[in-house]
Predict the structure.
Amino acid sequence: MEYTEKLAYQSCFWYNDGLRKAKIRDLSGAIVSLRKSLQYSRENVVARNLLGLVYYGRGEVVEALVEWIISKNLKSHENIANYYIKKLQETPGELDKVNQAIRKYNQCLVYCRQNGEDLAIIQLKKVIAAHPSFLKAHQLLALLYLHTEQYAKARQILRRAHKMDITNEITLSYMHELAQIRSQKVAKLKEEKEQTVTYNLGNETIIQPVSASLKDNASVLTILNILVGILVGAAVIWFLIAPAVNQRRSADTNKNIIAMSEEIASRDTQIATLKSELEGYRVTSEDTESALQTAQSTQESYEAVIRVYNQFQGGQTSNADMLEGMLAISLDSLGEEGKAMYDEVASELFPTMCERLYNEARSAMEAADYAGALETLQKVVQMDSGYEDGAALKLLGDAYAQSGDKENADKTYARVVAEHAGTEAANAAQNALDGVPDEPDDGGADDDSGDNGDGSTDE
């Protein structure tokens, strides 16, 4: 009891720390604190709801929705997460707008890898206009402004990003880089200023270079400049007057060629840009629909695994009902917490149900109920494909064969041979593939009869 109270105290402590940081827009620090709070107590619904709000404040709507869905399943009644989810769903086109912004942001990353900074900047402006709280889009736009030496615009975007999250490391590093560039410019101007001397003479301000030797040697320099000018003039007259007409014609021709080349290059760039935008519009609709389906599947899988986990902890639901729920879960769509809950239930439920269903399938095969045997064995194989050293998988192949489905029967036998080589099931499967009939069954007096050696049987 004392250990549980310590965990609850630590969870509340880090929640309060995350709340304090969130109030001053230290969103990065708030995320770290709230994650620690959930490490001590993953059922801290208040901390999970606040974590979702912090994610939403940084424009990460999908992460916020995941946290609120988990919170809703942990506490279905009197939970403010229900209100957040409802408001998000009721806002017309909100999710579509977020998906479009994320898709355009990913396309900007592609443009950056292809040295298309101008296209990326145009696209990011649209993303920020549609989704103003998208912190990552602000950071990427600021980086592109730094890269293209548009420092005033970069400073403006970084100020917005800093107001969203005052301790974000990426934003602070960009601001530090901008400050270094500015200090270098100031140092350069100061150095140029130090190379001149300014003083007042009466009501006039005189500015002259630091070195006075140039003034002392002004007469010598004047003579040298005159001599150089004479030589240059003679060279120009000698080399340029005769071929002047030919050079003029060549210059006109070159200007025309350059103008035509620039026009062709400009049109090619416009065509490539239009093609890229058209392809992006085509892909966007398909990716948006796929993203919505993935989000729906993720929500259903989380709700299913939490429902089965609660049934397992409550002990009031039959194993058969819990098994139906477990087999309907898409394991790939679960996160680390979801998989941990799934594995905890599966480790206790699957061995018992595999044994029961396997015995039912054998009885169905003996009664020539091949359809029932197929349905039962498919569940056994889904739970444990190597049950009884491949015997369950081999019996599934027999059920297919007896049902007249030779194609699936051969595939199943081949799978037994490949996955369970050297076992009795593999040898029997190979014989079935080769057309060798099985040896007659002795009535199952070894493993499946349940004989304990003293005349009694297991129930």
Summary: The longest helix spans residues 244-314.
